[in-house]
């Protein structure tokens, strides 16, 4: 890996893979699935399309991120709720694969208490996978994204050089997005600037859920407007 030309080495980013334990932590813990933190008296987020409570997919406690990322994404909890109701075809009718659509709820919120939320009876939530640590690893972009960074290689040449495993697939924090349909950073709705990756949520990694046909999803955020967070995914 150290034989990379310097212009490729300059594109090295760290990605952090979650280390999980199958048990429930505090409402404010970082986790896949399980019980989120909600404001006192707040009801569980429901789908704007079908009205059903949406399971929590991901909650990141930004104060518990690896040190290199503390403060980078703001403060508090980053939460992603996503509708899994297949009776109402929420995914297709809301085009949930696009950013900023109905059928999901993404937000940054600062928790003020440890009051456990009221869990709706009819919710089918995923068993909690608590994130107890992070494993850092190198990550590199794909040839298209490298080109945008001014590093030009033919796709085959690039893949031969860097290893087909980059950008890393699977669930990861930061690093380079593993794009399925090419570069798709959403634009911030306030400043129109392309948002950056916070978390890659892949099909069937820590959650037993598939985005379309083994699609890969990305939680993104505006660098400037940290409350502008969204989630989108693509499959081949
Ligand atoms: Zn729905
Ligand atoms: Zn912005």
Automatic annotation (TrEMBL):
A single Pfam family, by name? DUF1963
Q: Which domain of life is it from?
A: Bacteria
By what name is this protein known?
DUF1963 domain-containing protein
Please report the organism this UniProt entry assigns to the protein.
Candidatus Moduliflexus flocculans
